[in-house]
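User: Here's a structure from my thesis project, written as structure tokens. My advisor, Dr. K., wants to see whether a designed sequence matches the one we expressed. Can you design one independently, without my sequence as a hint?
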């Protein structure tokens, strides 16, 4: 589990295409400082399992489900990525509950810069938009953010200077894809409440999640 507070911007070092999978190597001196085989690291919001650590970089396998559901299908060497180690029990919880199970991707529609923050509008599939509420939580490329406004197929967030400096959201432009994870609490509430309201849970794509852990 993660909190959506990005620890550092890493860089993709190598990508090896495999049948129905990929193996990626990412440089991140901070997140690898105490990393060991089997640890979880969030890469642009996707929970990946460390299979190798060497010289300030780690390697992880990315399965087909993750490639289909996230933007990691287009990841390339030299690309900056947001990195976060798994949350530690007993530490401050600065963001919100983030599983690292990406629900799908959105597209940056527009952004407006002001002297103190940027306002970014992101297009979102309607099947995911129903989980968003104003002032609720959303994870965008692994960053825990507060929803400002929400429509049928879009939402907006405000990015403070620290977020612009420390994460890849500072350089995202219109047309860029971003990974989205909605608040898991909203999905559980929908599932539990629907039968009591005389309805059924709306049909949606199979979601086995994108965490690489199968331990």
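Assistant: Designed independently from the structure alone:
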């Amino acid at each position: 589990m993660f909190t959506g507070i990005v620890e550092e911007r890493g860089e993709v070092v190598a990508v090896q295409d495999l049948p129905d999978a990929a193996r990626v190597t990412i440089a991140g001196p901070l997140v690898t400082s105490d990393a060991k085989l089997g640890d979880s690291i969030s890469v642009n919001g996707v929970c990946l399992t460390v299979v190798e650590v060497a010289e300030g970089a780690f390697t992880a396998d990315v399965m087909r489900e993750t490639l289909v559901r996230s933007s990691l299908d287009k990841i390339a060497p030299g690309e900056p990525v947001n990195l976060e180690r798994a949350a530690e029990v007993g530490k401050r919880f600065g963001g919100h509950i983030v599983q690292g199970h990406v629900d799908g991707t959105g597209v940056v529609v527009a952004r407006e810069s002001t002297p103190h923050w940027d306002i970014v509008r992101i297009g979102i599939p309607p099947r995911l938009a129903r989980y968003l509420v104003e002032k609720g939580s959303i994870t965008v490329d692994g960053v825990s953010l507060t929803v400002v406004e929400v429509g049928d197929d879009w939402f907006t967030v405000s990015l403070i200077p620290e977020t612009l400096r420390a994460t890849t959201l500072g350089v995202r432009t219109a047309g860029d894809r971003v990974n989205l994870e909605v608040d898991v609490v909203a999905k559980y509430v929908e599932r539990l409440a629907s039968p009591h309201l005389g309805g059924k849970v709306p049909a949606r794509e199979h979601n086995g999640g994108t965490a690489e852990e199968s331990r």
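When you compare it with your expressed construct, this may help: The longest helix spans residues 184-193.
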